[in-house]
Amino acid sequence: QVQLVESVGGSVQSGGSMRLSCAASNVTVEDCYMGWFRQAPGAEREGVAMIERDGTTVYADSVKGRFTIMKDNAQNILILQMNSLEFEDTGMYFCAADPWGGTHLSDPRTFVYWGQGTQVTVSS
Fold first, then answer.
1. Considering only CA atoms, which of 115, 63, 69 is closest in space to residue 90?
2. Residues 14, 17: Cα–Cα separation, whole Å
3. Is the pLDDT score of 19 beyond 90?
4. String of DSSP letters for 30-70
5. CA-CA-CA-CA torsion for 65, 57, 43, 116, nearest 10 degrees?
C-alpha cells in the first residue's frame, strides 16, 4: 500500500527557516502530482504548494516567495523548504500524492494519498 511519511516538524521563531520532507513508499514521486497542505486548529485544510509531474509548481499566495516545493526523485521524497516563517504558518502540515492528475491546490479532495501530518509551530 502507498505510504507517505512526513519528517518531524518542530518549533521555530518568526523569520526562521524549516525544511520538511515526505518519504514515499509504493508510489513514485516523479510520476505523481505532489502537494503540501496545512491545517490550523479550527480551520479547514488549505493548500500550500504543489508540483506537477512535469515539474510545474503552484503556490498559495500567502507563501509565494518564501516556500519552495521540490522533488528528489533519486530518494523518492518530496521537500518543502520554508523560509521567512511567520506566525500564521503554524499548523499541521500534510504531504499528499495523486498519480492520476486532476489535482487542484484549492481542493484537498483531489489528492488520493495522504501522510499523517507533522506539526510546525512558529512563535512570534
1. 63
2. 9
3. yes
4. GGSEEEEEEE-TTS--EEEEEE-TTS-EEE-TTTTTTEEEE
5. -120
pLDDT at 124: 87
15, exposed or middle or buried, with CB in 10 Å at 0-12, 13-18, 19+? exposed
Return the closest-CA partner of residue 92 out of 27, 43, 19: 43
**Bridge-partner residues for 23, per DSSP?**
5, 77
116 band by pLDDT with thresholds 50, 70 and 90: very high
CB atoms within 10 A of CB 117: 18
